[in-house]
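ARCHIVE CARD
CATEGORY: sequence design from structure
SOURCE FIELD: tokenized fold
FIELD CONTENT:
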């Protein structure tokens, strides 16, 4: 399984990452990626940039170092109503929205409340993908959430950093359950390095191995081709990106 899109990466703008968008793009080219999603943390995360940072992403060139740039954000799930921490004006400027739980923004609670929050995030229609769901601090009803994600065409991220044991320790077993149930349900998956330094870009081997272990069809892994990824965005109701015409 070849991966040509890294759908979760951070720059120095996130406050606790160490590379620029240019350095990330250069690393992406060196590692053979075709598309790079730049997804810095949304404003409620401590150290994150102001919302103008996201609204102004329209000035980013569509290609940096010959790698297509998808303008994105890792938004924070704020509450059980499924609200995210981006103002309405931001969405029109962004191609790719990850919704994630982060402990400083959403205090870990019960499985029932986590499930309610995730289902409401999906139903509100702002999130294109649910990020690093394996975090053991946020247990949820996996089948219920994944069935809802399938119904609303929201992708499920397999986060490589979660599988390394360096962050969100204990995620590996839950990620395995998510992949196993996700294959059964028929969700779309994507793969993100969650890079906070340019050398981590395209570190996706653990995610690939997990998807392979459970026999997930490549057609259900949208990061395996530019066409799959960009057409998934169309499925989500996003506008066609004309600069990427040859990649559809």
């Amino acid at each position: 399984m070849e991966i040509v899109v890294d759908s979760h990466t951070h720059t120095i703008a996130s406050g606790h990452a160490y590379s620029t968008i240019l350095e990330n793009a250069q690393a992406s080219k060196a590692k053979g990626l075709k598309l790079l999603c730049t997804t810095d943390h949304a404003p409620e995360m401590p150290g994150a940039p102001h919302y103008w940072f996201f609204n102004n992403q329209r000035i980013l060139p569509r290609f940096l170092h010959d790698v297509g740039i998808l303008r994105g954000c890792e938004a924070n799930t704020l509450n059980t109503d499924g609200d995210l921490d981006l103002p309405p004006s931001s969405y029109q400027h962004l191609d790719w929205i990850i919704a994630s739980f982060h402990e400083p923004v959403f205090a870990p609670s019960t499985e029932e409340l986590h499930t309610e929050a995730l289902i409401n995030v999906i139903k509100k229609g702002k999130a294109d993908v649910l990020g690093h769901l394996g975090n053991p601090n946020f247990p949820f009803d996996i089948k219920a959430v994944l069935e809802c994600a399938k119904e609303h065409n929201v992708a499920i991220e397999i986060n490589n950093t979660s599988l390394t044991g360096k962050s969100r320790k204990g995620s590996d077993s839950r990620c395995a359950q998510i992949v196993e149930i996700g294959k059964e349900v028929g969700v779309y998956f994507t793969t993100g390095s969650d890079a906070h330094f340019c050398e981590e870009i395209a570190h996706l081997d653990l995610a690939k191995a997990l998807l392979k272990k459970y026999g997930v069809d490549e057609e259900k892994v949208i990061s395996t081709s530019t066409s799959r990824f960009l057409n998934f965005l169309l499925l989500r109701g996003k506008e066609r990106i004309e600069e990427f015409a040859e990649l559809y």
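CARD ANNOTATION: Strands lie at 5-6, 35-38, 63-64, 67-76, 96-100, 129-130, 155-159, 189-192. The chain is about 30% helix and 15% strand.
SHELF: design records, drawer C
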